[in-house]
Amino acid sequence: MANKISNQSFTREELLQAMVETPHEAIIFVDTGGIIRLINEGYAEFLGYRPEQLVNRHILEIVPQTQLLEVLKTGKPQYGDIWAINGQRVVVTRLPIEKDGQIIGVLGRSMFRDEIALALDFAQKIKKLEEQLASYRAELDHARRAKYEVDEIIGNSDKMLKLKNRIFKVAKTSSTVLITGDSGTGKELFAHAIHNASNRRNRAFVRVNCTSIPMDLLESELFGYDEGAFTGAKRGGKLGKFEIAQGGTIFLDEIGDMDRSMQAKLLRVLQEKEIERIGGTKPVPVDVRVIAATNRNLEEMMQTNQFREDLYYRLNVVLFQVPPLRERKEDIPGLTSELIKKLNKRLGAAITGLNQETMEMFLSYDWPGNVRELENLLEQAINLAENKILYRFDFPVLNKRLQRQLEGHSVSGTVRPLHEVVKEAEKKAILKALNATDNNKKEAARLLEIHRSVLYRKLERID
Ligand SMILES: Nc1ncnc2c1ncn2[C@@H]1O[C@H](COP(=O)(O)OP(=O)(O)OP(=O)(O)O)[C@@H](O)[C@H]1O
User: Which segments constitute the PAS domain (predicted)?
Assistant: First the structure.
Protein backbone atom coordinates (compact mmCIF):
# COMPACT_ATOMS: atom_id res chain seq x y z
CA MET A 1 0.00 0.00 0.00
CA ALA A 2 1.54 3.28 -1.14
CA ASN A 3 0.47 5.25 1.94
CA LYS A 4 2.17 3.03 4.48
CA ILE A 5 5.51 4.18 5.83
CA SER A 6 8.55 1.92 5.50
CA ASN A 7 11.75 2.06 7.59
CA GLN A 8 13.72 -0.13 5.21
CA SER A 9 17.02 1.27 3.89
CA PHE A 10 17.72 1.38 0.17
CA THR A 11 20.67 1.72 -2.09
CA ARG A 12 21.25 4.94 -3.97
CA GLU A 13 20.16 3.21 -7.21
CA GLU A 14 16.94 2.05 -5.62
CA LEU A 15 16.24 5.50 -4.27
CA LEU A 16 16.85 7.15 -7.63
CA GLN A 17 14.61 4.59 -9.28
CA ALA A 18 11.85 5.25 -6.78
CA MET A 19 12.16 9.00 -7.28
CA VAL A 20 11.94 8.67 -11.05
CA GLU A 21 8.89 6.48 -10.78
CA THR A 22 6.98 8.86 -8.56
CA PRO A 23 3.37 8.98 -9.71
CA HIS A 24 3.24 12.72 -8.94
CA GLU A 25 5.53 13.89 -11.70
CA ALA A 26 6.22 13.22 -15.37
CA ILE A 27 9.96 12.69 -15.84
CA ILE A 28 11.87 12.45 -19.07
CA PHE A 29 15.54 12.58 -19.99
CA VAL A 30 16.56 13.36 -23.56
CA ASP A 31 20.17 13.21 -24.73
CA THR A 32 21.98 15.79 -26.83
CA GLY A 33 20.73 14.11 -30.00
CA GLY A 34 17.09 14.47 -28.89
CA ILE A 35 16.74 10.75 -28.15
CA ILE A 36 14.60 9.74 -25.18
CA ARG A 37 16.88 7.84 -22.79
CA LEU A 38 14.58 7.67 -19.81
CA ILE A 39 10.88 8.27 -19.25
CA ASN A 40 8.88 7.32 -16.22
CA GLU A 41 5.77 5.25 -16.32
CA GLY A 42 3.50 8.14 -15.36
CA TYR A 43 4.59 10.29 -18.28
CA ALA A 44 4.57 7.44 -20.81
CA GLU A 45 1.07 6.54 -19.71
CA PHE A 46 0.01 10.16 -19.93
CA LEU A 47 1.22 10.14 -23.56
CA GLY A 48 -0.57 6.86 -24.19
CA TYR A 49 2.42 4.47 -24.26
CA ARG A 50 4.46 2.09 -22.14
CA PRO A 51 7.95 3.44 -21.24
CA GLU A 52 9.76 0.75 -23.24
CA GLN A 53 7.85 1.83 -26.36
CA LEU A 54 9.35 5.32 -26.09
CA VAL A 55 12.96 4.81 -25.00
CA ASN A 56 15.43 5.33 -27.87
CA ARG A 57 12.90 7.20 -29.97
CA HIS A 58 13.36 10.83 -30.97
CA ILE A 59 11.40 13.25 -28.78
CA LEU A 60 10.02 15.12 -31.81
CA GLU A 61 8.28 11.95 -32.97
CA ILE A 62 6.39 11.72 -29.71
CA VAL A 63 5.99 15.34 -28.61
CA PRO A 64 6.43 17.50 -31.73
CA GLN A 65 5.92 20.77 -29.84
CA THR A 66 8.56 19.94 -27.21
CA GLN A 67 10.71 22.74 -25.76
CA LEU A 68 13.34 20.37 -24.40
CA LEU A 69 15.59 20.82 -27.44
CA GLU A 70 15.52 24.58 -26.84
CA VAL A 71 17.19 24.01 -23.48
CA LEU A 72 19.87 21.93 -25.14
CA LYS A 73 20.59 24.85 -27.43
CA THR A 74 20.66 27.58 -24.81
CA GLY A 75 21.96 25.56 -21.88
CA LYS A 76 19.55 27.60 -19.72
CA PRO A 77 17.04 26.04 -17.35
CA GLN A 78 13.34 26.92 -17.67
CA TYR A 79 11.25 26.88 -14.52
CA GLY A 80 7.52 26.67 -14.00
CA ASP A 81 6.52 26.98 -17.65
CA ILE A 82 2.82 26.30 -18.10
CA TRP A 83 1.96 24.68 -21.38
CA ALA A 84 -0.56 22.32 -22.94
CA ILE A 85 0.13 18.75 -23.89
CA ASN A 86 -2.52 16.34 -25.15
CA GLY A 87 -5.09 19.01 -24.32
CA GLN A 88 -4.02 19.19 -20.68
CA ARG A 89 -2.13 21.96 -18.99
CA VAL A 90 1.06 21.02 -17.22
CA VAL A 91 3.68 22.93 -15.25
CA VAL A 92 7.11 22.07 -16.63
CA THR A 93 10.66 22.56 -15.44
CA ARG A 94 13.44 21.81 -17.95
CA LEU A 95 16.99 21.45 -16.67
CA PRO A 96 20.17 20.97 -18.68
CA ILE A 97 22.16 18.07 -17.20
CA GLU A 98 25.94 18.26 -17.13
CA LYS A 99 28.63 15.71 -16.61
CA ASP A 100 32.31 16.57 -16.45
CA GLY A 101 31.45 20.16 -17.38
CA GLN A 102 29.59 19.22 -20.54
CA ILE A 103 25.88 19.11 -21.27
CA ILE A 104 24.85 15.52 -21.78
CA GLY A 105 21.11 16.04 -22.10
CA VAL A 106 18.05 17.67 -20.66
CA LEU A 107 15.75 16.59 -17.88
CA GLY A 108 12.09 17.48 -18.16
CA ARG A 109 9.86 17.33 -15.11
CA SER A 110 6.17 18.13 -15.24
CA MET A 111 3.57 18.20 -12.55
CA PHE A 112 0.33 16.82 -13.72
CA ARG A 113 -3.05 15.56 -12.58
CA ASP A 114 -4.04 16.95 -9.18
CA GLU A 115 -0.72 18.69 -8.69
CA ILE A 116 -1.25 20.77 -11.80
CA ALA A 117 -4.66 21.85 -10.67
CA LEU A 118 -3.10 22.82 -7.35
CA ALA A 119 -0.20 24.63 -8.95
CA LEU A 120 -2.48 26.45 -11.37
CA ASP A 121 -4.76 27.36 -8.55
CA PHE A 122 -1.83 28.69 -6.64
CA ALA A 123 -0.48 30.57 -9.67
CA GLN A 124 -3.90 32.08 -10.24
CA LYS A 125 -4.18 33.11 -6.61
CA ILE A 126 -0.82 34.82 -6.83
CA LYS A 127 -1.84 36.53 -10.05
CA LYS A 128 -5.04 37.74 -8.43
CA LEU A 129 -3.14 39.03 -5.41
CA GLU A 130 -0.70 40.78 -7.71
CA GLU A 131 -3.57 42.40 -9.55
CA GLN A 132 -5.15 43.46 -6.28
CA LEU A 133 -1.86 44.87 -5.08
CA ALA A 134 -1.44 46.81 -8.33
CA SER A 135 -4.93 48.22 -8.01
CA TYR A 136 -4.39 49.23 -4.36
CA ARG A 137 -1.10 50.83 -5.37
CA ALA A 138 -2.84 52.75 -8.14
CA GLU A 139 -5.58 53.79 -5.72
CA LEU A 140 -3.02 54.93 -3.17
CA ASP A 141 -1.11 56.82 -5.84
CA HIS A 142 -4.35 58.41 -6.90
CA ALA A 143 -5.18 59.35 -3.33
CA ARG A 144 -1.77 60.93 -3.05
CA ARG A 145 -2.28 63.07 -6.10
CA ALA A 146 -3.47 66.64 -5.86
CA LYS A 147 -6.96 66.75 -7.33
CA TYR A 148 -7.54 70.34 -8.35
CA GLU A 149 -5.94 72.54 -10.97
CA VAL A 150 -5.89 76.34 -11.01
CA ASP A 151 -8.71 76.35 -13.58
CA GLU A 152 -10.97 74.59 -11.12
CA ILE A 153 -10.79 77.50 -8.70
CA ILE A 154 -13.82 79.45 -9.80
CA GLY A 155 -13.91 83.19 -9.39
CA ASN A 156 -13.06 86.15 -11.58
CA SER A 157 -13.26 88.85 -8.94
CA ASP A 158 -10.13 90.99 -8.79
CA LYS A 159 -9.15 89.43 -5.49
CA MET A 160 -9.43 85.89 -6.84
CA LEU A 161 -7.71 86.68 -10.14
CA LYS A 162 -4.77 88.13 -8.25
CA LEU A 163 -4.48 85.03 -6.08
CA LYS A 164 -4.82 82.68 -9.04
CA ASN A 165 -2.04 84.49 -10.90
CA ARG A 166 0.11 84.28 -7.86
CA ILE A 167 -0.19 80.48 -7.89
CA PHE A 168 1.87 80.26 -11.08
CA LYS A 169 4.61 82.47 -9.68
CA VAL A 170 4.80 80.62 -6.41
CA ALA A 171 4.72 77.23 -8.13
CA LYS A 172 8.16 77.92 -9.60
CA THR A 173 9.80 77.86 -6.18
CA SER A 174 9.73 75.46 -3.27
CA SER A 175 9.08 78.13 -0.65
CA THR A 176 6.76 77.42 2.20
CA VAL A 177 3.24 78.78 1.70
CA LEU A 178 0.72 79.85 4.30
CA ILE A 179 -2.93 79.98 3.25
CA THR A 180 -5.35 81.80 5.51
CA GLY A 181 -9.05 82.45 5.16
CA ASP A 182 -12.39 81.60 6.71
CA SER A 183 -13.69 78.08 6.69
CA GLY A 184 -14.97 76.93 3.30
CA THR A 185 -13.27 79.64 1.25
CA GLY A 186 -11.28 77.14 -0.82
CA LYS A 187 -7.92 77.08 0.96
CA GLU A 188 -7.45 73.40 0.23
CA LEU A 189 -8.16 74.03 -3.45
CA PHE A 190 -5.31 76.52 -3.53
CA ALA A 191 -2.93 74.03 -1.94
CA HIS A 192 -3.77 71.42 -4.61
CA ALA A 193 -3.45 73.95 -7.41
CA ILE A 194 -0.05 75.19 -6.21
CA HIS A 195 1.27 71.62 -6.15
CA ASN A 196 -0.20 70.83 -9.57
CA ALA A 197 1.24 73.97 -11.15
CA SER A 198 4.71 73.11 -9.84
CA ASN A 199 7.28 70.68 -11.16
CA ARG A 200 6.42 68.46 -8.21
CA ARG A 201 3.06 67.66 -9.79
CA ASN A 202 3.94 64.06 -10.57
CA ARG A 203 5.08 63.42 -7.04
CA ALA A 204 2.96 62.86 -3.97
CA PHE A 205 0.63 65.46 -2.49
CA VAL A 206 0.00 64.40 1.08
CA ARG A 207 -2.62 66.10 3.22
CA VAL A 208 -2.49 65.98 6.98
CA ASN A 209 -5.36 67.41 8.95
CA CYS A 210 -3.67 68.53 12.13
CA THR A 211 -6.93 68.60 14.10
CA SER A 212 -8.27 65.20 13.15
CA ILE A 213 -5.19 63.41 14.48
CA PRO A 214 -4.80 63.33 18.27
CA MET A 215 -1.74 65.31 19.30
CA ASP A 216 0.22 62.39 20.69
CA LEU A 217 -0.20 60.55 17.39
CA LEU A 218 0.66 63.47 15.17
CA GLU A 219 4.39 63.08 15.64
CA SER A 220 4.41 59.47 14.46
CA GLU A 221 2.00 60.38 11.68
CA LEU A 222 4.30 63.13 10.40
CA PHE A 223 7.71 61.64 11.07
CA GLY A 224 7.07 57.89 11.31
CA TYR A 225 8.90 55.49 13.59
CA ASP A 226 11.50 52.76 13.47
CA GLU A 227 10.81 49.17 14.40
CA GLY A 228 10.63 48.71 18.16
CA ALA A 229 10.32 52.44 18.84
CA PHE A 230 7.63 51.76 21.43
CA THR A 231 5.38 48.95 22.58
CA GLY A 232 2.73 48.40 19.99
CA ALA A 233 4.91 49.78 17.18
CA LYS A 234 4.37 47.93 13.90
CA ARG A 235 7.02 45.48 12.68
CA GLY A 236 9.25 47.15 10.15
CA GLY A 237 8.30 50.59 11.53
CA LYS A 238 6.13 53.11 9.77
CA LEU A 239 6.83 55.79 7.20
CA GLY A 240 5.77 59.26 8.21
CA LYS A 241 3.87 61.62 5.93
CA PHE A 242 6.99 63.71 5.34
CA GLU A 243 8.80 60.71 3.90
CA ILE A 244 5.75 59.67 1.89
CA ALA A 245 5.68 63.18 0.43
CA GLN A 246 9.38 62.97 -0.50
CA GLY A 247 9.95 65.03 -3.65
CA GLY A 248 6.37 66.32 -3.47
CA THR A 249 4.26 68.51 -1.22
CA ILE A 250 2.86 68.12 2.26
CA PHE A 251 -0.28 70.08 3.05
CA LEU A 252 -0.66 70.78 6.76
CA ASP A 253 -4.31 71.73 7.12
CA GLU A 254 -5.59 73.45 10.29
CA ILE A 255 -2.03 74.29 11.34
CA GLY A 256 -3.45 76.71 13.93
CA ASP A 257 -4.64 73.69 15.92
CA MET A 258 -1.19 72.15 16.29
CA ASP A 259 0.04 72.18 19.86
CA ARG A 260 3.17 74.09 20.85
CA SER A 261 5.48 71.12 21.33
CA MET A 262 4.61 69.86 17.87
CA GLN A 263 5.11 73.37 16.50
CA ALA A 264 8.69 73.27 17.79
CA LYS A 265 9.31 69.95 16.05
CA LEU A 266 7.88 71.24 12.80
CA LEU A 267 10.03 74.34 13.02
CA ARG A 268 13.10 72.12 13.27
CA VAL A 269 12.10 70.26 10.11
CA LEU A 270 11.58 73.49 8.20
CA GLN A 271 14.98 74.75 9.32
CA GLU A 272 17.03 71.58 8.92
CA LYS A 273 15.12 70.00 6.03
CA GLU A 274 15.38 66.66 7.74
CA ILE A 275 13.15 64.62 9.96
CA GLU A 276 13.86 62.25 12.81
CA ARG A 277 11.76 59.13 13.06
CA ILE A 278 10.61 58.23 16.54
CA GLY A 279 13.18 55.76 17.85
CA GLY A 280 15.37 56.46 14.83
CA THR A 281 19.10 56.77 15.09
CA LYS A 282 19.87 59.17 12.28
CA PRO A 283 18.01 62.06 10.67
CA VAL A 284 16.46 61.53 7.24
CA PRO A 285 16.84 64.38 4.72
CA VAL A 286 13.52 65.40 3.18
CA ASP A 287 12.84 67.40 0.05
CA VAL A 288 9.24 68.37 0.63
CA ARG A 289 7.40 71.59 -0.06
CA VAL A 290 5.29 72.64 2.91
CA ILE A 291 1.93 74.33 2.45
CA ALA A 292 0.04 75.14 5.64
CA ALA A 293 -3.49 76.44 6.01
CA THR A 294 -5.66 77.73 8.80
CA ASN A 295 -8.86 79.60 9.41
CA ARG A 296 -7.57 80.89 12.72
CA ASN A 297 -5.92 84.22 13.27
CA LEU A 298 -2.31 83.18 13.84
CA GLU A 299 -1.18 86.70 14.62
CA GLU A 300 -3.66 86.91 17.48
CA MET A 301 -2.62 83.45 18.58
CA MET A 302 0.99 84.64 18.71
CA GLN A 303 0.01 87.45 21.07
CA THR A 304 -1.45 84.94 23.48
CA ASN A 305 1.46 82.54 23.07
CA GLN A 306 -0.67 79.87 21.45
CA PHE A 307 1.32 79.98 18.24
CA ARG A 308 5.09 80.23 18.04
CA GLU A 309 6.31 83.40 16.45
CA ASP A 310 9.37 81.75 14.89
CA LEU A 311 7.21 79.08 13.24
CA TYR A 312 4.78 81.73 12.00
CA TYR A 313 7.56 83.55 10.17
CA ARG A 314 8.95 80.30 8.76
CA LEU A 315 5.56 79.36 7.38
CA ASN A 316 4.59 82.79 6.19
CA VAL A 317 7.16 83.01 3.38
CA VAL A 318 4.41 83.33 0.80
CA LEU A 319 0.96 84.27 2.06
CA PHE A 320 -2.36 83.56 0.37
CA GLN A 321 -5.26 85.28 2.09
CA VAL A 322 -8.37 83.80 0.54
CA PRO A 323 -11.19 86.33 0.88
CA PRO A 324 -14.59 85.31 2.22
CA LEU A 325 -17.42 85.05 -0.28
CA ARG A 326 -19.21 88.12 1.11
CA GLU A 327 -16.23 90.20 -0.03
CA ARG A 328 -16.44 88.92 -3.61
CA LYS A 329 -20.12 88.56 -4.30
CA GLU A 330 -19.48 89.03 -8.01
CA ASP A 331 -18.12 85.44 -7.94
CA ILE A 332 -21.48 84.05 -6.81
CA PRO A 333 -23.16 83.68 -10.25
CA GLY A 334 -20.13 81.92 -11.76
CA LEU A 335 -19.66 79.71 -8.72
CA THR A 336 -23.33 78.81 -8.70
CA SER A 337 -23.43 77.71 -12.30
CA GLU A 338 -20.18 75.71 -12.06
CA LEU A 339 -21.26 74.06 -8.82
CA ILE A 340 -24.62 73.15 -10.37
CA LYS A 341 -22.80 71.50 -13.30
CA LYS A 342 -20.56 69.59 -10.90
CA LEU A 343 -23.50 68.51 -8.73
CA ASN A 344 -25.63 67.54 -11.76
CA LYS A 345 -22.90 65.14 -12.74
CA ARG A 346 -22.52 63.72 -9.27
CA LEU A 347 -26.24 63.42 -8.53
CA GLY A 348 -27.39 62.53 -12.04
CA ALA A 349 -29.57 65.66 -12.17
CA ALA A 350 -30.27 68.11 -14.99
CA ILE A 351 -30.72 71.47 -13.28
CA THR A 352 -30.14 74.40 -15.59
CA GLY A 353 -29.87 77.28 -13.12
CA LEU A 354 -31.65 79.63 -10.71
CA ASN A 355 -34.45 82.07 -11.32
CA GLN A 356 -33.66 85.72 -10.82
CA GLU A 357 -35.33 86.06 -7.44
CA THR A 358 -33.20 83.22 -6.09
CA MET A 359 -30.02 84.76 -7.46
CA GLU A 360 -30.97 88.02 -5.76
CA MET A 361 -31.43 86.13 -2.52
CA PHE A 362 -27.97 84.59 -2.99
CA LEU A 363 -26.48 88.02 -3.56
CA SER A 364 -28.08 89.52 -0.47
CA TYR A 365 -26.92 86.77 1.88
CA ASP A 366 -23.49 87.06 3.48
CA TRP A 367 -22.42 83.37 3.29
CA PRO A 368 -20.69 82.76 6.65
CA GLY A 369 -19.90 79.20 5.49
CA ASN A 370 -18.53 80.50 2.20
CA VAL A 371 -18.30 78.29 -0.89
CA ARG A 372 -18.85 75.15 1.16
CA GLU A 373 -22.18 76.53 2.40
CA LEU A 374 -23.16 77.50 -1.14
CA GLU A 375 -22.28 74.02 -2.40
CA ASN A 376 -24.22 72.29 0.39
CA LEU A 377 -27.35 74.39 -0.08
CA LEU A 378 -27.28 73.78 -3.83
CA GLU A 379 -26.94 70.05 -3.22
CA GLN A 380 -29.94 70.07 -0.86
CA ALA A 381 -31.98 72.05 -3.37
CA ILE A 382 -31.08 69.83 -6.32
CA ASN A 383 -32.14 66.80 -4.32
CA LEU A 384 -35.55 68.29 -3.59
CA ALA A 385 -36.18 70.25 -6.78
CA GLU A 386 -39.28 69.48 -8.83
CA ASN A 387 -38.25 71.70 -11.74
CA LYS A 388 -35.19 72.21 -13.90
CA ILE A 389 -34.79 75.69 -12.49
CA LEU A 390 -34.20 76.26 -8.80
CA TYR A 391 -36.63 78.61 -7.07
CA ARG A 392 -36.48 80.43 -3.76
CA PHE A 393 -38.68 77.77 -2.13
CA ASP A 394 -36.09 75.11 -3.00
CA PHE A 395 -33.86 76.72 -0.37
CA PRO A 396 -35.85 76.54 2.90
CA VAL A 397 -32.72 76.54 5.06
CA LEU A 398 -31.27 79.54 3.29
CA ASN A 399 -34.57 81.40 3.65
CA LYS A 400 -34.41 80.89 7.41
CA ARG A 401 -30.78 81.90 7.65
CA LEU A 402 -31.42 84.97 5.57
CA GLN A 403 -34.38 85.91 7.76
CA ARG A 404 -32.19 85.68 10.83
CA GLN A 405 -29.51 87.72 9.13
CA LEU A 406 -32.05 90.42 8.25
CA GLU A 407 -33.37 90.45 11.78
CA GLY A 408 -29.89 91.33 12.86
CA HIS A 409 -29.23 87.99 14.47
CA SER A 410 -26.70 87.27 11.82
CA VAL A 411 -24.93 84.02 12.33
CA SER A 412 -22.11 85.34 10.21
CA GLY A 413 -18.90 87.07 11.11
CA THR A 414 -16.81 86.73 14.16
CA VAL A 415 -18.19 86.60 17.68
CA ARG A 416 -17.70 90.01 19.30
CA PRO A 417 -17.57 90.97 22.96
CA LEU A 418 -21.04 91.43 24.43
CA HIS A 419 -20.39 94.97 25.69
CA GLU A 420 -19.55 96.09 22.12
CA VAL A 421 -22.67 94.49 20.68
CA VAL A 422 -24.86 96.01 23.44
CA LYS A 423 -23.32 99.44 22.92
CA GLU A 424 -23.96 99.27 19.21
CA ALA A 425 -27.59 98.18 19.68
CA GLU A 426 -28.11 101.03 22.18
CA LYS A 427 -26.68 103.56 19.74
CA LYS A 428 -28.98 102.27 16.99
CA ALA A 429 -32.06 102.50 19.23
CA ILE A 430 -31.22 106.08 20.35
CA LEU A 431 -30.63 107.29 16.79
CA LYS A 432 -33.85 105.64 15.68
CA ALA A 433 -35.81 107.35 18.46
CA LEU A 434 -34.28 110.77 17.66
CA ASN A 435 -35.08 110.23 14.06
CA ALA A 436 -38.66 109.29 14.82
CA THR A 437 -39.16 112.40 16.99
CA ASP A 438 -37.42 114.90 14.74
CA ASN A 439 -34.62 115.20 17.25
CA ASN A 440 -36.97 115.95 20.15
CA LYS A 441 -34.93 114.61 23.06
CA LYS A 442 -37.72 114.71 25.61
CA GLU A 443 -39.99 112.74 23.32
CA ALA A 444 -37.17 110.35 22.33
CA ALA A 445 -36.42 109.66 26.03
CA ARG A 446 -40.09 108.89 26.55
CA LEU A 447 -40.11 106.43 23.63
CA LEU A 448 -36.96 104.79 24.95
CA GLU A 449 -38.48 104.70 28.44
CA ILE A 450 -35.41 106.33 30.00
CA HIS A 451 -34.94 109.58 31.86
CA ARG A 452 -33.97 112.62 29.77
CA SER A 453 -30.72 113.07 31.75
CA VAL A 454 -29.77 109.47 30.98
CA LEU A 455 -30.35 110.14 27.30
CA TYR A 456 -28.12 113.23 27.43
CA ARG A 457 -25.35 111.28 29.13
CA LYS A 458 -25.57 108.53 26.56
CA LEU A 459 -25.58 111.03 23.70
CA GLU A 460 -22.31 112.47 24.94
CA ARG A 461 -20.69 109.07 24.54
CA ILE A 462 -22.02 108.58 21.04
CA ASP A 463 -19.74 110.14 18.47
N1 LIG B 1 -13.24 79.00 -5.73
C2 LIG B 1 -13.83 77.80 -5.68
N3 LIG B 1 -14.22 77.20 -6.82
C4 LIG B 1 -14.84 76.01 -6.78
N5 LIG B 1 -15.08 75.31 -5.68
C6 LIG B 1 -14.71 75.86 -4.52
C7 LIG B 1 -14.06 77.12 -4.47
N8 LIG B 1 -13.79 77.40 -3.18
C9 LIG B 1 -14.25 76.38 -2.47
N10 LIG B 1 -14.79 75.43 -3.25
C11 LIG B 1 -15.43 74.19 -2.81
O12 LIG B 1 -15.90 74.42 -1.49
C13 LIG B 1 -15.60 73.35 -0.62
C14 LIG B 1 -14.71 73.83 0.51
O15 LIG B 1 -13.43 74.15 0.02
P16 LIG B 1 -12.09 73.87 0.82
O17 LIG B 1 -12.18 72.57 1.54
O18 LIG B 1 -10.95 74.09 -0.08
O19 LIG B 1 -12.18 75.04 1.90
P20 LIG B 1 -11.20 75.38 3.10
O21 LIG B 1 -10.99 76.85 3.06
O22 LIG B 1 -9.99 74.52 3.02
O23 LIG B 1 -12.10 75.02 4.34
P24 LIG B 1 -11.68 74.61 5.86
O25 LIG B 1 -10.97 75.78 6.46
O26 LIG B 1 -13.00 74.37 6.52
O27 LIG B 1 -10.83 73.40 5.74
C28 LIG B 1 -14.96 72.29 -1.48
O29 LIG B 1 -15.94 71.37 -1.88
C30 LIG B 1 -14.42 73.05 -2.66
O31 LIG B 1 -14.36 72.23 -3.79
Answer: 12-63
Long-range contacts of 121-130 (CB under 8 A, 24+ apart): 123/80, 123/82, 123/91
* Whether this model's pTM surpasses 0.80: no
371: nearest Cα among 126, 154, 124, 162:
154
Are both 302 and 339 inside the same structural domain? no
Spatial separation of the C-alpha atoms in residues 312 and 22, rounded to whole Å: 76
Q: Which pLDDT score is estimated for 3?
A: 65
The residue out of 65, 89, 112 marking a domain boundary is 112
- For 78-101, the pLDDT digits (tens) are 987 877 777 777 788 999 999 998
Alpha-carbon span 423 to 442, nearest angstrom:
21
CA-322 nearest atom, ligand 1: 21
Question: Could you tell me if 371 and 186 are in contact, meaning their C-beta atoms sit under 8 angstroms apart?
Answer: yes
Structural domains of the chain, count: 4
Average pLDDT, the chain: 88
* CB hemisphere CA count around 267 (13 angstroms): 15
CATH number of the domain that residue 453 is part of: 1.10.10
Spans of the chain below 50 pLDDT = 1, 410
- Nearest protein Cα to ligand 1, atom 6: 186
Which residue range forms the structural domain that includes residue 400?
326-406
Atom index in ligand 1 nearest the CA of residue 189 equals 18
Judge if 95 and 68 occupy the same domain. yes
Domain containing residue 95: CATH number = 3.30.450.20
| Contact indicator for 295, 372 with CB cutoff of 8 Å | no
Whether 295 is in the pocket of ligand 1, judged by its Cβ within 6 Å, is yes
d(CA 27, CA 16): 12
- State in Å: Cα 75 to ligand 1 middle: 64
- What is the ipTM for the molecules in this complex? 0.98
Query: Which of ligand 1's atoms lies nearest the C-alpha of 185?
Result: 21
Please state, for a pLDDT cut of 70, what percent of the chain lies above it.
94
6 lies in some domain: no
